[in-house]
């Protein structure tokens, strides 16, 4: 299989270059708007005799690209962790109000929770949900196919879905470390239960001998565009400009601290621009590609600063997205470097506020000041914000509960149900920090 090698540092990383003869610099940044590229047809990838899967993104590296962008921004990373922790809430548990059911099944349920590290499983699943919009769970049955003994999280970024059959059903999940270009023998193929009727499908499969003991179950957030891999809601951050603005401010402050050279130009370069150069010039080795990238950066700087180029225009190829937006290979922005003090304090606050808004996390809940205001919310306001944040997790918890309702039903634990108690922050006059409230 021809796969992209994601283990090495990307050639087109952000950098700041001094402009010769000027007390200023230029910032080269890869364009974040192309992380969800839709201009290339996705072709199924064969996995030996195990079938083929649908790549995640045009080069099957989209989850790694998303994770890389998130880890480069402190605000997004913190918001993602906060959202996962709020979804986790007070922790998942199986409960019953029937004393008879508790006597019959209590020990078995408790053993199931301990053997499956339910806390770690559920927190990991919550992170998959918030990062990628879906989660995959491996169900392990006993030899008689009468009980589900184990549930294991299969990390979403390492899962790929097989081609759908004639009825539109996805029969398998392929699991492997796709970063390392795995051989077919290193790829685990797991039968996937019917997304729409998993319990009935599991019962039907286990009624036949030789069906195997392992099955995968998919829980995913319904999206407007029903694709193989959901496009998360926060994709708007990368398609828009605020992510790049915040990254640029960090580069500008670092450049000014290091050499007192304010950034005069921001230059966004699409990965396709470099690919076209390498293809046209027949460059194949990584070291030659790196040298060509550095040479191209110098050429752009010389174009911007050379006297003979005064008044000339840089032409760049572009295509138009379905929503009518032009996507250029090279975009050059001139930056106003006349800001007093050059600290960009109000701009960074505004960028953080826009990111928190897109991530649906109030800035005060993750330690940032919202907008350009230096005001802070009262304790009562923060408690209400946290209550609202938990209430908004209701649909996602219901979707995640589908798997646990399946486990309870298949194992015959009548009277039990999955539950996550609501964490209600208390006021000081109650003499305690928090209390648990059951959500009906």
Mind sketching the topology for me?
Blueprint: E1 15-18, E2 25-30, E3 45-46, E4 52-53, H1 62-71, H2 74-88, E5 93-96, H3 99-115, H4 118-132, E6 134-141, E7 148-154, E8 159-161, E9 172-175, E10 188-191, H5 198-206, E11 214-220, H6 235-239, H7 242-259, E12 263-269, H8 271-281, H9 286-305, E13 318-320, E14 326-328, E15 330-334, H10 345-358, H11 379-391, H12 394-411, E16 416-419, E17 422-425, E18 434-437
Parallel strand pairs: 2-12
Antiparallel strand pairs: 1-2, 3-4, 5-16, 6-7, 6-11, 8-9, 9-10, 12-15, 13-14, 17-18
Helix pairs in contact: 2-4, 7-10
Q: Which residues form runs of ≥5 with pLDDT under 50?
A: 1-12, 307-315, 317-324
Question: Biggest sheet: strands, sense, closure?
Answer: 4 strands, mixed
Residue fraction in strands: 15-25%
Q: Give the class from helix and strand content and strand pairing.
A: alpha+beta
Name the shape in a single word: flat
Distance between the termini: 50 Å
Tell me the number of strands: 18
Number of helical regions: 12
The helix-strand sequence is EEEEHHEHHEEEEEHEHHEHHEEEHHHEEE
Can you describe this structure?
The chain has 440 residues and is an alpha+beta fold. The chain has 12 helices and 18 strands. It has helices spanning 62-71, 74-88, 99-115, 118-132, 198-206, 235-239, 242-259, 271-281, 286-305, 345-358, 379-391, 394-411; strands at 15-18, 25-30, 45-46, 52-53, 93-96, 134-141, 148-154, 159-161, 172-175, 188-191, 214-220, 263-269, 318-320, 326-328, 330-334, 416-419, 422-425, 434-437. A hairpin with a 5-residue loop joins β3 (45-46) and β4 (52-53). The two termini are 50 Å apart. 25% of the residues are buried. Mean pLDDT is 79; it is low at 1-12, 307-315 and 317-324.
């Amino acid at each position: 299989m021809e796969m992209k090698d994601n283990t090495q540092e990307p050639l087109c990383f952000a950098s700041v270059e001094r402009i010769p003869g000027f007390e200023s610099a230029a910032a080269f940044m890869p364009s974040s708007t192309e992380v969800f590229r839709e201009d290339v047809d996705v072709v199924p990838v064969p996995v030996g005799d195990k079938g083929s899967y649908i790549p995640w993104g045009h080069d099957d590296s989209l989850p790694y690209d998303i994770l890389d962008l998130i880890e480069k921004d402190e605000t997004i990373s913190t918001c993602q962790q906060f959202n996962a922790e709020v979804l986790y809430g007070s922790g998942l548990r199986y409960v019953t109000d029937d004393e008879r059911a508790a006597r019959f099944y209590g020990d078995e349920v408790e053993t199931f929770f301990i053997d499956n590290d339910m806390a770690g499983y559920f927190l990991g699943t919550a992170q998959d949900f918030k990062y990628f919009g879906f989660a995959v769970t491996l169900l392990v049955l006993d030899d008689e196919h009468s009980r589900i003994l184990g549930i294991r999280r299969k990390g979403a970024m390492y899962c790929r879905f097989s081609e759908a059959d004639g009825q539109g059903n996805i029969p398998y999940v392929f699991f492997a470390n796709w970063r390392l270009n795995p051989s077919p023998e290193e790829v685990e193929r797991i039968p996937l239960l019917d997304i729409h009727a998993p319990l009935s499908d599991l019962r039907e499969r286990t009624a036949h001998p030789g069906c195997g003991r392992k099955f995968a179950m998919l829980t995913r957030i319904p999206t407007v565009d029903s694709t193989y891999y959901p496009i998360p809601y926060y994709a708007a951050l990368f398609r828009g400009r605020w992510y790049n603005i915040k990254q640029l401010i960090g580069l500008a402050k670092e450049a000014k601290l290091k050499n007192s050279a304010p950034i005069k130009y921001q230059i966004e370069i699409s990965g396709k621009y470099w690919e076209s150069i390498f293809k046209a010039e027949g460059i194949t080795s990584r070291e030659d590609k790196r040298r060509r990238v550095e040479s191209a950066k110098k050429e752009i700087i010389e174009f911007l600063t050379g006297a003979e180029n005064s008044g000339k225009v840089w032409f760049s190829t572009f295509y138009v997205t379905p929503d009518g937006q032009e996507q250029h290979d090279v975009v050059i922005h001139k930056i106003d470097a006349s800001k007093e003090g050059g600290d960009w304090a109000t701009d960074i606050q505004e960028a953080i506020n826009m990111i928190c808004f897109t991530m649906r996390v109030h800035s005060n809940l993750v330690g940032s000041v919202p907008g350009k205001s230096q005001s802070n919310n009262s304790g009562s306001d923060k408690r209400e914000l946290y209550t609202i944040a938990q209430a908004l997790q209701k649909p996602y918890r219901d979707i995640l509960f589908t798997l646990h309702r399946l486990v309870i039903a298949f194992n015959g634990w009548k009277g039990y149900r999955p539950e996550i108690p609501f964490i209600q922050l208390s006021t000081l006059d109650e003499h305690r920090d928090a209390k648990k409230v059951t959500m009906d």
